[in-house]
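Minutes, project huddle
Topic: does the predicted pose make sense with oxalic acid bound?
PN asked that the exact inputs be recorded in the minutes so nobody has to dig through chat later. Recorded below.
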Amino acid sequence: MTQNVDADKTKSRALREWIAEIARLTTPDRIVWCDGSEDERRRLTAMAVQAGTLIPLSQQKKPGSFLHRSNPNDVARTEQLTFICTPNKDDAGPTNNWSPPDETYAKLRGWLKNSMRGRTMYVVPYVMGPIGSPFSKVGVEITDSIYVVLNMRIMTRMGSAALAMLGDSDDFCRGVHCTLDVNPDRRLICHFPQDNAIWSVGSGYGGNALLSKKCFALRIASWQGRSEGWLAEHMLILGMRSPSGETRYVAAAFPSACGKTNLAMLTPPSDLSGWKVFTVGDDIAWLRVGSDGRLWAVNPENGYFGVAPGTNAHSNPNAMAMVGHDTIFTNVAMTPDGDVWWEGMDTAPPVNLLDWQGRPWHQESNDKAAHPNSRFTTPMTNNPALSPHVNDPEGVPISAIVFGGRRATTMPLVLESENWAHGVYMGATMGSETTAAAAGAVGVVRRDPMAMLPFCGYNMGDYFAHWLKMQSAIKHPPRIFMVNWFRKDRDGKFLWPGYGENMRVLKWMLDRIDGRAGATDTPVGRVPRLDDLDLQGLELPGDQLREDLAIKKDEWSAEIESASNFFEKFGGTMPPELREKHRGLAQSLNSAHL
Ligand code: OXD
Ligand code: MN
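Predicted holo structure (tokens), as shared on screen:
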């Protein structure tokens, strides 16, 4: 057993000491430092195939790609087992699970004692953000899972570049991950923001185990953002190039599995000729105020961990192209000729399919062939719509912020805020129906402010205050909008075609910002009239669109009531400015004739 960490691995004494400390606790048979090389990828992949962790797919149909089947008890994020462990309970706030740091460390240390005996400990250094950017941050994840190492290699800038960036510094996020026996009774995802540390035990699922993603880039980074004056958000970033060649950028927050990856790499309808969308990021944005007084965004990630079901040549042609090679699929179905399949792929399920658990599957079966939260992990360089500015050290300037949820009623297709504070109010009160990305009931409306409910690493009342405070630093703030692609008619049919057609809504936003498009004022925000939207070539009955844009008093009264109850949870930490906005809105709604 190697417990002495070679000085030649890193110049950072703090890193060497921490690795040695975790090795003393977990007593692995060997320690492997990951360098991120191609050679290493080949070696680890061969080992994962040998161990049955990865199943090779057909090299003709899906070159360089593999299938992983997880333990069936470990297929989604487990919010009830996710904790913010701050010394003071109030710092975690009423929407996070909290446990005291000392007690939690002691419990986890107990579970981890000798947990890597007979196993390999991988040390995975990684950078979040473009290499060389002053905004990028280093993390190191210790893990006993090859699947995690290979996914981290896709999702982050992993290996020697991270150690070079760290140098002799002690400033890195310390992530300890151990799968143990994948037992839900010994599963916990714990964050210690005051120590820049994460301990995740008992799960191999991406959102729990790839510690760079939700754990570091959102929960820990949101805490750091508050003290350093920036924002870590659950947002995609896209660029829209107009026919005249100008590119503008939008950052958009949606809860998990609401089509963020689709929107981030949208293909505009042919009727909007000359427009093109570029992806900067599909899940996370780090936003800072530039010296020009605008808000600038970087995508800290290097790949996509997207939901497979529903992805097809219509909903996301770019994603279909990018998962065609060098991709790790998790919990999708497998065809007899070594290809993958999932519900909503738009091809009939092939015969002799194996379901996500490797069992024979028949069309008559009541069970899904692919798990509803099955995923692909793909390098961003596979994306045909990748922005040429994705590695720009300063990021890209943001013209609009969009909040969105999955709502069958109430929320119109699009709503424009009056100003920053109103936009923050919209984000703070947003709600969405739950999806399969987290364990638990699907389809229940819950408040999910800024789509950050499961990801904010501190008290959300303070988080709202931080958002409001950012206004004074942003001289040229982006305009804030709310969208809903999911409103339904009385028969349960979607009112808006969605996918590529969403470009029409994004275009309206840019036209609003430039003063080219109209809108009508309502007590809850500005809404386009039918002829304010560019609808050329879209066959959509006027009544249907009118219904999609309607603000209904009874629905909004219920919405305001539900937001009031949510605000109550925060007591004194809820900023008075938001309470004031809420009261004003309730009053104007009351007196309006809608
Ligand atoms: C994700 C999620 O995986 O939000 O991005 O759950
Ligand atoms: Mn997400």
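Observations noted during the meeting:
- The pocket of manganese (II) ion (ligand 2) is lined by residues 234, 256, 283 (CB under 6 Å).
- The CA atoms of residues 30 and 120 lie 5 Å apart.
No decisions taken; revisit at the next huddle.
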